[in-house]
Design brief:
It comes from Telmatobacter sp. DSM 110680. Pfam families: Fer2 (PF00111), Fer2_2 (PF01799). There is one protein chain. The chain has 167 residues and is an alpha+beta fold. A hairpin with a 2-residue loop joins strand 1 and strand 2. It contains 6 helices and 5 strands, in the order E-E-H-E-E-E-H-H-H-H-H. Bound molecules: FE2/S2 (inorganic) cluster (2 copies). Residues 93-99, 146-148, 150 line the site of one FE2/S2 (inorganic) cluster.
């Protein structure tokens, strides 16, 4: 089967019951995406498919042939991604286990809010633009858990990069 992962075309042969997360980690040597709960509850396995965030532990790899998959390794292809740099500067990680998922999720979330996609806490659904308030950020990142409680640094890192990209 043929995949496009981090901009590279990759052939892989595996059991069709394999999750996308297991394909990345166990078959393709991309261990950046983490297996936290393996049941869709923690966000540690978040990757981007055509720029949208998905939980790779809940995805069957065969469904994603021909789609553009980006993992945390791909975000750092030509130097650190601004969010990776910002997580470092704001101490957005402690053990770092959740960090790849947090960063992939934040990359997609920033694009979602720029496209005007509302969240559960968006007050005005007809507004032309949505501000990334503290509540919006918390709601939109709520699928990514950090057991160390590095949330303050994570929020600061995302807030800073969002502000830079919308200047
Ligand atoms: S490992 Fe996928 S959501 Fe937890
Ligand atoms: S930094 Fe450890 S779980 Fe988030």
């Amino acid at each position: 089967m043929q995949f496009l992962i981090n901009g590279k075309s990759i052939e892989a042969d595996f059991d069709v019951r394999t999750s996308l997360l297991d394909l990345l980690r166990d078959h393709l040597g991309l261990p950046g995406s983490k297996k936290g709960c393996n049941q869709g509850a923690c966000g540690a396995c978040t990757v981007l498919v055509d720029g949208e965030r998905i939980l790779s532990c809940l995805a069957l790899a065969v469904q994603y042939q021909g789609r553009s998959i980006t993992t945390i390794e791909g975000l750092a292809d030509s130097g650190l991604h601004p969010l990776q740099q910002s997580f470092i500067e704001h101490d957005g990680f402690q053990c770092g286990y959740c960090t790849p998922g947090q960063i992939c999720s934040a990359v997609a979330m920033i694009e979602e809010i720029k496209r005007g996609l509302p969240s559960h806490v968006t007050a005005d659904l007809s507004a032309d633009a949505i501000a990334l308030s503290h509540d919006e950020l918390r709601e939109r990142m709520s699928g990514n858990l950090c057991r160390c409680g590095a949330y303050n640094g994570i929020v600061d890192a995302i807030t800073e990069v969002y502000a830079e990209t919308t200047e």
